[in-house]
Each structure stands twice: as C-alpha cells, then as structure tokens.
Design goal:
Blueprint lengths: L2 H16 L4 H14 L6 H20 L9 H27 L10 H12 L3 H10 L6 H25 L17 H10 L5 H19 L4 H11 L6 H23 L7 H11 L2 H14 L4 H10 L6 H11 L6 H21 L2 H12 L21 E4 L3 H14 L3 E5 L2 H9 L4 E3 L5 H6 L7 E4 L4 H13 L5 E6 L2 H9 L4 E4 H20 L1
Parallel strand pairs: 1-2, 1-4, 2-3, 4-5, 5-6
Helix pairs in contact: 1-2, 2-11, 3-9, 3-10, 3-11, 4-5, 4-7, 4-13, 5-15, 6-7, 7-14, 9-10, 9-11, 12-16, 13-14, 14-17, 15-16
Amino acid sequence: MEFAWILIALVFGVGVRLLRFPPLIGFLLAGFALNFLGYQANDTLHSVADIGITLMLFTIGLKLNVIDLLKREIWLSAISHMTIWITVFVSLIWLLGIVGGAYFDVIEIKTASLLAFALSFSSTVCVVKVLEESGEMKTRHGKLAIGVLVMQDVIAVIFLVIVTGVMPSIWALALILLYWLKPLIGRLLDLAGHGELLPLTGFFLALGGYELFSLVGIKGDLGALILGMLLSKHVKAAELSKALLNFKDIFLIGFFISIGFTTLPDLKMILVSLIISLLLPLKFVLFFGLFTRLQLRGRTAYLAGQVLSNYSEFGLIVVALCVNLGLLANDWLVILALSVCFSFALTSLVYQHSHQSYNQLKHIIRRFERADRLREDIFHQPKDAEILVVGMGRVGKGAYEALSAVLGDKVWAMDADRERVKKQRKAGCKIMLGDAEDVDLWDNIDHSNIKLILLALPSIGDITSINQQLKNVSYQGKLAAIARYEDERQKLLNAGVDNVFNFYTEAGTGFAEESLLLMDHKV
C-alpha cells in the first residue's frame, strides 16, 4: 500500500474527528479524494479490505450465540423487512419511472426487484463499527441488530448460489465435521497462550475458515463467521476477540477507502444517490414497526432500527451482477456506491445522538409497545441493594467481590451481557441483567435505597450518558467510575461523577501500598 493512501486516510480521519464526526466518514472521503488525485486501487488494497471483513466476521462469531438466531424476533423480522421493503421500493421506482426520473425510466420490474433486493441489506461493516465504538455489541439492541445481519448473510449466500448457478461442491457436506473438530481447535487456542501467538492463531482460524469454505464453493466470509461461532463458548473467546480488535480496525480502513475507488460520479449520479438515501427513514420505520409488533420494547426497536438503517456493501455485488448481465447501466454501480457511502455517514452521525433522541421521544415511542413483553425484556429489581456495581468485567468483578465480602447481600451487580449474567448467577453472584444506558431501566427499578453506584465501564461516553440519565430520574446516591487516562478522569469529574478511579495510575499505587503492608507485617 502506498504511503500516500495512509497519509490521506490519516488527514481526513483526524479532520472529521476535529469536527466531532466519526473517523469512518473521513476514511470514506479519503477514498474519493485518492480517486480524484489519480490513484488507482490495486490488489493490495482489495486484499487489505477483504482481510478486514474476514476478521470482523470472525470476531462477530466469537460473540454470537447460535440459539439467538432461532428467536422469532430475529429471523422473522429479517425476512419480513426484506419482503416489505422490496414491495415498497419497486412501487416507488415504478412511480419515478412514470414521471421520467433520471435512470429510473428505463428500469423493468425484474431489474427493479433486484435493485430493491440489493438495497434491502444493512451493512455488517458499518453496524459493527458503530456498535463497537459505542460499546453496545452485547446489549439487547446490539445483539438483535447482529442477529438480523447474520440472517441477511445467509439469504445473501442463497441468492448468490441461485443467480450465479454455481452450486457448492459435494465436499461441502464434510464441513459438518468441523463441529466434532471443535475440541481440537479449542486446544490450539489454549496452546497459543496470551502473547503474540494468540492474534496469529486468530488470523489462522479466520483466514483458514475463509479458504476452507471457498474451496468447496461457499462464500468464504461465511466460513470465518461459522468458525468464530464454533469457538464462542471457549474460555479464551473474549480474549481472542480483543487481541484481534486493533488489527481488524486497521484492515477495515482499507475497506472504507476502497469504496471511493469505484469511480468518480457526476452531478446527476449524486442527485439520484441522494434520492435513494432519502428512503433510509422508510427502512427505519419498517424495522421499528416489525420489532415492536414482535413484542420488543420501544427502546430496543428504536435503537436497533436506527443502527440497521443503512445500505450494504453486498448491494454492490448484486448491482455488479446486474451490470454484467446487461440489466443495469454501469452508472448504477457508481450510484449505489455513493448511496452506501451516504448511508454509512448518516448512520454514524445519527446514532451518536440516538440515546438522547430516545430520551426526548420516549413517551411517543412507548405508545407503539405491545402490552405483552418478551420474558427477557422484563426488568428485575435489585432487592435490598445499597451498592450497585455496573459492568462485570475484570475491574467490576473485583470490586463486587471485595465489597460483597464486607457488606454481603447489600451489594448487587448489573451487566448487559446475558451469558455473563448467567455465569455469575451460577457462581452465587447477586446480579441483574440490564443495559445501564437504558433510561427505561432506571425509570422502572426502585433505586431509592441505593447509596452508591460504581460504573466499571470502559467507555467514557457510556459513563457520561448513564450519569445524565441518573440525574434525570433524580438518583440521590453517590456515583463512582473508572477512567483509563487523566483527561478522561477530569471530564467525568467535571460532569458531576463523585469519584473517578484512574485505572492505570491508581492500580499501581494500590499495588505498592499492599506490598508495603507485607514489609510492615514482617517488621
């Protein structure tokens, strides 16, 4: 990869960050800028982009519970949304064709259906990136969105088999053996340890899964996803995901840049892509309506619907097939690439304020909820709790154990990860399932007896949001939090958090003080 690509990506990434926009938008702009400057996308860039997507799907698999995909709110919403969207979109194209809209007046119903199908998908790359940046991958709405994306990937594989006419090899049946090889793959992960061998093993498994599925005629990305799912229950799954996080983010920059190399558009193409982008609110309305009809809470439906309201890079594959078959003009590939870029930017911008907008609209949104809730959406009360530890990662778990050793049942914990909650309950922990950023949660639980809440969360944005929500519900107790850096600590103190523990600095101080006690004891 040429140094100029890295330079332009850095300049645009830092530039949009200074404007308080997500870096993702800068990387998209960098691709168009490089194209405008005369650079050409080469095999290296495409390889980097492909590796980024493969690693991303592998890490999704590491966090995915297969049973979640069988839930009605996931598979039924994905199929229903696609069906309704195609029907509505084809009707709109037909109307635009009647009034003589540019590019729309020459599209037949069959081609319009394929175009609608291409735009019915949501972007896995965009959704995962946005959810990870906001620390919401394991929340109720985050898991719902990921589940819908996986179902869309399954539909994409079926579509490609039908359209290309390329059936998987008979050897594809042998992939079933991977289930029985799971202990052997897990053993390899154990042998990798905790150093540089761990991410290397992750690369081997992700890319190996891709190549294995490709060899038998199945979409390679699906192989990376499935191999990750096989390891999702492994004790080192979370550690492996974290080890691959920075690698995945770096490679994905290549993907965002590559979109800008599709071609340079003219004004007419930009206007058509903007018209298509104006239909994104319709995508949100359909998701929101389906989710609420399937008994999901208004907040879950609202947030999941927002993050899924974009167009997918898979749409470019569908349109490219249509162009090759002579069903669409080559200009449509450019138009769709622009629509995908616009949708990425809109999702990144809108979702930054999704929690605040929900708080403002919650009284209206709740009117669409059904009275009969799903069992997992019913809130549980922290009985007799005086201290609540939010976030049961390593820091939160340590704080909970230390406090409960002194105060016993007066200490409760809360976490948004269902699997972690189940595991901690089996270990005897007083813990409730809940997303602390959920304003509905604080509205529905009795926090009058809680004297102290500890926010053991990694994201300063999450902590700031929770702090504001606790103020909104008139929480009277104290609030403590952790921070990784001194500037973050100061921001939280300025926002009204009563005490902020600098994780790196004060952990070292505590370690030194505990060690000095050993010397005193000997004396």
